[in-house]
Amino acid sequence: MDAAQLLLGALLFLLPAALLLHLLRGRGKPRLPPGPPSLPFLGSVVWLTNKPSEIEPLLRRLFARHGPVVALRTGARLSVFVADRRLAHTALVERGAVLADRPALPSVRLLGESDNTITRASYGPVWRLLRRNLVAETLHPSRVRLFAPARAWVRRVLVEKLGEPGPDAPAPPRVVETFQYAMFCLLVLMCFGERLDEPAVRDIAAAQRESLIYLSRNMPVFALLPAVTKHVFRARLDKARALRRRIRELFLPLINARREYKKRGGEPKSKGETTTFEHSYVDTLLEIKLHEDGDRPLTDDEIILLCSEFLNAGTDTTSTGLQWIMAELVKNPAIQEKLYREIKAATDDDKEEVSEEDIHKMPYLKAVVLEGLRKHPPAHFVLPHTAAEDMEVGGYLIPKDTTVNFMVAEMGRDEQEWKNPMEFSPERFLPGGDGEGVDVTGTKEIRMMPFGVGRRICAGLGIAMLHLEYFVANMVREFEWKEVPGHEVDFAEKNEFTVVMKKPLRPRLVPRRIQMSDSAE
């Protein structure tokens, strides 16, 4: 036997042993999360038969097949989705720094926009500066109290608009449109420090909403081969730029007016002027210096993006939440009556409104709002996170730069954690209920996460809860909300920027205060 034959024999003997050793070594290592097969350039083959806008039912099928952690690919990008609350707590709270970053959006680069916003910025000094400014200078309780007169004004606007249609109207109104308008009235005032007239507010609301919905529906395509799709879908980019220009045209004069206001030392432009507010979010943005960029101030375009972000965060989610909660109260008149009795007991009859001090004395009101957010979170996903390094979730490897998202609605409706989860039962948040003492910040554990959790938790959690409680209480005090034959409440969902009612709520509103005055006579 020559040397070549001896070498070949040795190799034939050693190769199986080496392969077995490799398999044994790899057995203990985490593997990528399961998911459908992928094709080069396209990503997961499910995109051949499923639209990105229909991802939620697709994910439910994948969770049922593979378990609470699944992976999808869009082009070369790997995205992981987590449906288990305990795994979410481990990832977002216990190891929060690893998932505190955001994925880069190709559409943002193609539009030439800055990443210097609170939702987009990388986890670092610019993000900390922008978030700290928002929390300390606009959303801090001392600042929130300054806007109490603005909330009272918007409450009057809301009640007036809701009470406009008479009993002879051909059909009850779609109340969500009134909710959206009222929330824009409030957030525009908080943002720009100016109480604008109705046409101006509606112009801003229309521009913001059109841009928001168009971008959310039409920009995800650029995640797939942006070098190619930017040419194939050039018309989409042109439309998006036109929508952004419209927002700039509306916002820039308001920002410049605020600059002038500050130069005047906070004095009104004319004597007796009552539409200008003493504080605004824009005021704080005009003071910011980006230390990481030579202490430069924010550009006009950066301020416009931050204002747009502020309005989106405070209007669409709140108006969506209000519609879902009021729909449940229409469908459950006994719950509405119980809430009304609590409101009546805590508020003097001769007071014009349920005050912000009053609502702190209403545990059932808070339970109604929490139950609405649990069953109908306005967003069914958190904003996506990016892994800053390789990490493990549920025994699976999450490689660095992977996009990771969490199933908000699935956690809040998990039948293993909640009794009869699709039943609207505010009592679950009262003593003895399965949601007693729930912490929506998710610090100790996650039972529900309508505002996200961890380091990128929604900065506006506190003011969102205040607005929901304040406006729900006042709407129930002013009107009895009744279901209308032919316009029954339908809880089917529809994806826009938030998850809204597919069939908008159309109730009959019976004024309660008139009934009270009539009975007194």
TrEMBL record:
- Provide the cofactor list for this protein: heme
Family annotation (PANTHER family)? CYTOCHROME P450 89A2-RELATED (PTHR24298:SF800), FLAVONOID 3'-MONOOXYGENASE-RELATED (PTHR24298)
This protein's name: Cytochrome P450
Q: Name one GO molecular function term.
A: heme binding
Binding of heme occurs at 458
Q: Which UniProt keywords apply?
A: Heme, Iron, Membrane, Metal-binding, Monooxygenase, Oxidoreductase, Transmembrane, Transmembrane helix
Major localization listed first in the record, in broad terms:
membrane
Question: This protein's superkingdom?
Answer: Eukaryota
Which organism does this record belong to?
Answer: Paspalum notatum var. saurae
User: Which taxonomic lineage is given here?
Assistant: Eukaryota, Viridiplantae, Streptophyta, Embryophyta, Tracheophyta
Family the UniProt entry places it in: Belongs to the cytochrome P450 family.
- Can you say where in the cell this protein is located? Membrane
Task: Quote the Pfam families the UniProt record gives.
Answer: p450
Q: Which GO terms describe its cellular component?
A: membrane
Q: Which InterPro entries match?
A: Cyt_P450, Cyt_P450_CS, Cyt_P450_E_grp-I, Cyt_P450_sf, Plant_metabolite_P450s
- Membrane topology recorded in Swiss-Prot or TrEMBL: Single-pass membrane protein
